[in-house]
Specification:
globular; 5-stranded mixed sheet; about 240 residues; single chain; 11 strands; Spore Coat Polysaccharide Biosynthesis Protein SpsA, Chain A; binds magnesium ion; two-stranded antiparallel sheet; binds cytidine-5'-triphosphate; alpha+beta
Length: about 240
């Protein structure tokens, strides 16, 4: 679980993973959401490098269904945080899910579906949902008018979420290749792990995601997350 980001887009305050939702840090919600799945045996958290002890303390003080949880220091990019987390997973683990700490409310059905698709033979699996908005490609010109290049057919687009699931071997291999390429001054880091698999020619499949697996990115997302959590607590004692 990459959890080492600052949360710049959320505005001033603690690192995003430590910001609270219903009185509980986002990170704790996200770990619990994964731990709820019978497919998950171990959670490795990549924490902000200066916050490892704090994260260990937080996870100790919140009940986590008896699942094994480990904490490592994350890196300067999401990609680096995932690579460092992956290195802390025991060698005999064959299937790895990568889940953003910033998606605290992912339903267990999504976690189960991703794990099941990897078990059934896919090397890389991403949960995704159709887009509500029409999307245009532009020539970026921050703040100014941006010329439109084209409009992809919305029916063929998906907004991807996490957890993304992988054969461990595949994930480790593409992260190693990316590191080598970066060191040689190659391509920039990717924003999702499946993107690395695609870059190196692997096959990625999409399974249905869930609207409640959204990422807390901007202040309005926290308002929405509070509302979803309140509804769950009122209706099913979540
Ligand atoms: N992440 C990470 N290490 C980094 C950067 C991001 O582990 N160096 C994690 C974040 O903690 C988050 C996930 O990657 O759980 C998705 O990233 P994002 O939503 O972009 O979070 P931040 O990078 O924290 O937010 P921002 O981009 O607004 O600063
Ligand atoms: Mg970021």
């Amino acid at each position: 679980m990459p959890a080492a980001g600052r949360g710049e887009r959320l505005g001033p305050g603690a690192p995003k993973a430590l910001r609270e939702l219903g009185g509980v840090p986002l990170l704790v919600h996200a770990v619990r959401a994964l731990a709820r799945s019978r497919a998950v045996g171990l959670v490795v958290v990549a924490a902000p490098a200066d916050g490892v002890a704090e994260v260990v303390g937080l996870l100790d003080s919140h009940g986590l269904d008896g699942k094994d949880v480990r904490v490592v220091a994350g890196g300067a990019t999401r990609q680096e945080s995932v690579r460092l987390g992956l290195a802390a997973i025991p060698a005999d683990v064959e299937i790895v899910l990568v889940h953003d700490a910033a998606r605290p409310l992912v339903p267990v059905e999504v976690v189960d579906a991703v794990a099941a698709a990897v078990r059934a033979g896919a090397e890389a699996v991403v949960p995704a949902v159709p887009l509500a908005d029409t999307v245009k490609r532009v020539e970026p010109n921050r703040g100014g008018p941006e010329p439109v290049l084209d409009t992809p057919d919305r029916a063929t687009l998906r907004a991807v979420q996490t957890p993304q699931g992988f054969r461990r071997e595949t994930l480790a291999e593409v992260h190693e290749k990316a590191l080598t390429e970066e060191a040689a001054g190659g391509l920039p880091p990717v924003t999702d792990d499946a993107g690395l698999v695609e870059r190196f020619g692997g096959r990625v499949v999409v399974v249905p995601g869930h609207e409640e697996a959204f990422k807390v990115t901007r202040p309005l997302d926290l308002v929405l997350a509070e509302a979803v959590l309140a509804r769950r607590r009122a209706s099913d004692g979540y």
